[in-house]
Design goal:
Blueprint (H helix, E strand, L loop, with lengths): L1 E3 L11 H11 L3 E5 L13 H9 L2 E6 L2 E5 L3 E4 L5 E5 L5 E8 L6 H6 L12 H28 L4 E6 L10 H5 L10 H8 L3 E2 H5 L28 E6 L3 E10 L7 E2 L9 E8 L1
Parallel strand pairs: 1-2, 7-8, 11-12
Antiparallel strand pairs: 2-4, 3-4, 5-6, 6-7, 8-10, 9-10, 11-13
Helix pairs in contact: 1-2, 4-6
Length: 280
Amino acid sequence: MSFNIWVGGEPGGQPLEQTVRVIRESNADIVGMQEVRGQAKDRKRPDNGAKIAEMLGWHYFNQGSSTSILSRWPIKSKTPNKWGARIAVSESIDLFVFNVHFPASPYQPYQLLGIPYGNAPFIKTEDEAIDWAKKSRGKQVASLLDELTPVAKAGKAVVVTGDFNEPSHQDWTDRAALAGRCPIRVAYPSTKSLTDLGLSDSFRTVHVDEVTNPGWTWTPTTKPSDPKDKHDRIDFVFAGGANVKVLDSKVVGESKENAQVVVTPWPSDHRAVITTLSIE
């Protein structure tokens, strides 16, 4: 599961138990979590991810930078730069789980649609969008790939969860642009770097039609018609490995119109993604 819980699960006005309820009702076994730190109290931001893990009775790995990995199964080791962990899902099977939260700004959908956000200039072309995406997230993507690539190329079972703060190159297609789902085609580089490595975007593997099933995870806090926002799929579960198969993938959110798994009231400004895998 990938779940941005929104500043420690606090701004939505729901108790932390509601974030725990989302995880339980999704039947997740592992969660890559973003924004685990809550709002400042006495000049300190509490690690609500650790509190959630304790409430679940799960294992916990604080990656720093307000991201963490929670697991029903033991966490055996962590990568040197804390992008990922090795989890013992059984006595004979290990799963490598990487979890990311890439920078939110500059945000290319807003740049392309003329929606003010920070000091980023407005842009018009695919090349400009790719260039700005690399400026925004390229260094973090490269750092992730330093640790992810050897694992993926070795054919080991691997998952990458995260709030990429960038849409997918498999969503912003010519076909989607023609249908009005996006303004233009953009081969967004962050997701493409993972599919180029051989990983599968699990949601798009199951729901192949980007027009009829967009799978938006951003955002339940505004309407799709809001001219000051652009709904998009920016939260992902990627999977790879010689013996890994994607069986199912669903959006978890606030309503049946926007999610396949519904939990109300919804505690976050992002919807979550839950994927079922088989590992032989």
